[in-house]
Write a structure and sequence with these properties.
By secondary structure, the protein is α+β, with helices and mostly antiparallel strands. It has helices at about 15-20, 45-55, 60-65, 65-80, 80-95; strands spanning about 5, 10, 25-30, 40-45, 100, 115-120, 125-130, 140-150, 160-165. A three-stranded mixed β-sheet has the order 5-8-9, covered by helices on one side. A two-stranded antiparallel ribbon has the order 1-2. It starts with a strand and ends in a 5-residue tail after the last strand.
């Protein structure tokens, strides 16, 4: 799969795609029906097709499975030209893996109430606060961190910004 096909964003380019390209027939998922106890085994190629089918009608699947898309869409829409030229090809090729850091103590993923603060400092930004969950944190090359930049917490989600924090992936 590719990110941009015929001018459209492909919603499923992630670890599933990477495995599907290298070992399409390997077992990826075992589904056991709670009603019949019947077991169904999906290969990576089959799982990839199902995720693409679901993501086409339910963006939430893409967010759960595909942190790369969230970052690519944000960079494509609001990133600098330097960010676009650096990140988009690397995300599209699968060379870089993205983690998403939204969840916080006391608020979960209720983005309107997030407390992590970001403030400008010489040479960039300083983040202060806590996150409790970060999807793909260990393996990721970059973490997308959602932080409050607006002073007025009553602004809810309008006072938030997205930060790209590069890091070395763990093996």
């Amino acid at each position: 799969a590719r990110w941009f096909v015929g001018g459209q964003t492909n919603l499923c380019h992630n670890a599933v795609d990477r495995h599907a390209a290298k070992r399409p027939n390997d077992r990826a998922l075992i589904f056991i029906s709670t009603e019949t106890d019947e077991e169904t085994v999906y290969s990576f190629a089959e799982l990839q097709r199902e995720v693409e089918r679901m993501a086409a009608v339910w963006m939430g699947v893409s967010g759960i499975i595909n942190s790369d898309l969230i970052m690519a869409a944000a960079v494509q829409r609001g990133g600098t030209e330097a960010q676009k030229s650096f990140w988009l090809p690397r995300l599209a090729s699968g060379d870089k893996l993205v983690a998403i850091s939204i969840t916080e103590p006391d608020f979960g993923s209720d983005v309107a109430n997030l407390k992590l603060r970001a403030r400008r400092v010489a040479g960039g930004w300083a983040l202060a606060g806590a996150k409790t969950w970060c999807t793909f944190a260990g393996r990721a090359d970059v973490i997308v961190v959602i932080a409050r930049t607006g002073e007025d917490a009553a602004l809810g989600h309008r006072g938030l910004s997205m930060f790209l924090v590069q890091k070395p992936p763990f093996a």
